[in-house]
Records
---
Amino acid sequence: MSILSLCALLDTAFFLPATRWEDRLIASLARIGFAGCVCLISGLLFHFSQPRVPLLHTLPVRLFLWAIFGFSLLFALGWYLDAYYMPLFWRNLPH
């Protein structure tokens, strides 16, 4: 379930056609909360099976944290490229 919720977040953040980056960000915030809850519950199940392992070191929680870091980095990079470099690209097309 953790991986599926993160895939839904990835889909919302990057693969919604004909939407602005601001709209994608707002839609992604709800998915981040949902994915965080799912990963936390999965992490609790992992934690209960091995009580010596801290909750932040369980696989679902680590997966969530790494995915959020990577998605945030890619989202910011995509927004930056779209705002500053795509207008230059479209301006130089042959007529």
---
Amino acid sequence: MEEGDEQVFGKILYVEIDVFAALVLLIIMDHGKRRLNLTQSLFKKILVSVVCVLLADAATWALNGATFRGARTLNVIANYAYWLAGALPCYLTLLYCMSVVYGRLLKLWRWIFLVPVAAAVALLCLNVQNGWIFTVSADNIYARGPYFLLVGAMPFIHLAASVVMTVHKYLHAQFYERRLYIMLAFFMGFTILGSTLQIAVYGLVTIWISITLALLMCYVYIQNGSLSTDHLTGLNNRARFDAYSAWLWEHRRDYTGICLMVLDIDRFKSINDTYGHGEGDSALKLVAAALKAAMADRRGFLARIGGDEFAILLTNAEPGDDEMFSAHIELLLQAGNARGGRPYTVTASIGGAWLQENEESFRSFFARADREMYRRKSGHRG
């Protein structure tokens, strides 16, 4: 094969790789358009941004060295589109990690980390005059500028910040949550590796291929995770609770104190019948938010196990932790009722039980906690 033919073959190969990766992400977007919840809307934005980068990258390879009329102008436009679009995926990845790790977007940090994106846009505007980032010669050949790393390396700021917050959360997370943060860390690590290779060796297309593969794996994990998450409350569902409780039962000797608490919303049927199921959903979300807030500084497991019933498993707990936890939840529900403006008051009955040395099974353990909950519920009715 002659040198010219090799260059044409290489160009076609790069374009095919970019287009193939874009098609993979478009399939993920189509498959997940009805499956990604509100929290995962950022994930969808990452998919869109990477597809735009891949298509722009494919255009730059297809146009580079082309000799038809207007080819150089199109090549310049495609390269600006590529560099501008390339500033977004890693920033959106940072926001996605922030939403997963903290459960919300921290407004101040969101604006602070937008600064590198704005700086990249400014440098690309200046590139029109000075060619610092890239140039396209008169014969339509692209070349990196002397300071291309000023823009090319900026996404590493977002990736580094994502890694730091993910690792920090991993070190402080419950063991059953750590798989999520391992996946996020792999996502960033795979992306950093691909980016480093492409920056070091011009002509490789490892950045966006590595991101595509990482997004595909992340999406598969999201889909698997959705099977164990209650979408209304964001808590673990009954299937996850059953799996976790089976694991905990096998490893119960590793913990000094295991407390199971069962919570049931008072007069929940009346809320649904009087005010509609929308208000019933609102009550469930209020209780879930209270449980999450109460668990923020404790080690344990939360799940919605059916209807208006929730389960809390505390590990390495000390005597009195169950009563303190119950009191904390009651205070949080009172605060939620005060600021909610609802025509009803959300209260709950909470019963607990401590795992005993002679416990026959987890089922008997759960039954004791459930009986205690119903005993307290009868007292509330009285």
---
Amino acid sequence: MLFTGLMVRLLGVILMIDARSPTGTTFQLIACQVLQGIGGGFASIAVQVSAQAAVAHIDVATVTAMVLLLTEVGNSVGSALAAGVWATYMPRELSKHVGGLPGVNQTLLDELFGSIMDITLYDEGDPIRVGAVLAYQDVMCVTSRKTRAER
């Protein structure tokens, strides 16, 4: 069950590569999230039940608490790393893709960085929206360290 859950989650992550691109549809994004949720749920329950089955009845509460604690610590570390990457790279990418456009100043860049909803206020083909989407996409691909020209 653990292996199956992890494989379903991995499938959701792999499909997310295309879903997070500007050409990805809302359905693709939702389907990836659902797959990741189902796979994560299977894996989480399998780990918890396995840990509980491996100890005496008196230690079940302690083992359950430890499994949940480690899960939350892992989530917190992952969120902190993601926030660090985001705060480091997103302002630079916004400046690169949107900063040179007419009428764009630092205040607008700060607003675009602060809220994705501000980006949706622009029409689909608007250069500011297109640039912001490209900036988001580049930050999402930052771990590959490839520039747009290399892709």
